[in-house]
Inverse folding.
């Protein structure tokens, strides 16, 4: 049994862009699609938290720092074969005032923590897959919270790719297969979850063999 941990935010949790506070069904959200696509022999663990950042403390929402929970999370679910990290969208909030470079650097901190952990088999480190979230779509109710996020979000992929190359981890640019919903600009519609889950399944098979 190969164990895969999906560490992310509301798009890993399955927030529905059409209905506020609604969670998409287990087999609709992308980790569920991934699980079904991989089939027997794989355990896919969902660790999505609404509002989670890479490494930043949220002064308004609190308890959203992805760095603070990562090691307890890894130790909870070890031994792990692969950890998939898809974070950075919430780092685009105006309150953080971060550049694409710094957001990618924050994601890199998480990758280094995974690589330095002993949460794989025989106290080795699990493999890591850094996924860059797609650019922000047409903002509506989140427009003020994510002021100026659209142009910055379009530059994330180049910096995420650079960080992945520097750290020697796997990389996947989700914008190659999905888009954020124009219903709220942030979350994924069911069809995009389906496409992402299937694309990630192909990546997982390549990485784990």
């Amino acid at each position: 049994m190969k164990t895969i941990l999906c560490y992310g935010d509301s798009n890993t949790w399955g927030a529905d862009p059409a209905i506020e506070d609604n969670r998409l069904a287990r087999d609709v959200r992308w980790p569920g699609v991934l699980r079904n696509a991989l089939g027997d022999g794989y355990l896919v663990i969902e660790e999505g938290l609404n509002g989670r950042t890479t490494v930043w403390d949220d002064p308004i929402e609190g308890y959203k720092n992805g760095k603070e929970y990562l090691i307890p999370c890894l130790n909870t679910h070890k031994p792990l074969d692969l950890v998939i990290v898809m974070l950075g969208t919430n780092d685009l909030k105006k309150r953080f005032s971060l550049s694409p470079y710094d957001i990618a650097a924050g994601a890199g901190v998480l990758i280094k923590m995974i690589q330095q952990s002993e949460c794989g088999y025989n106290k080795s480190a699990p493999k890591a897959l850094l996924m860059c979230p797609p650019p922000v779509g047409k903002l509506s109710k989140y427009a003020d919270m994510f002021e100026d996020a659209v142009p910055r979000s379009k530059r994330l992929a180049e910096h995420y790719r650079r960080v992945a190359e520097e750290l020697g981890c796997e990389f996947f640019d989700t914008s190659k297969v999905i888009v954020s919903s124009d219903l709220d600009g942030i979350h994924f519609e069911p069809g995009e979850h389906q496409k992402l889950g299937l694309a990630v399944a192909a990546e997982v098979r390549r990485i784990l063999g």
The chain has one domain: 2-208. The chain is about 35% helix and 15% strand. The mean pLDDT is 98.
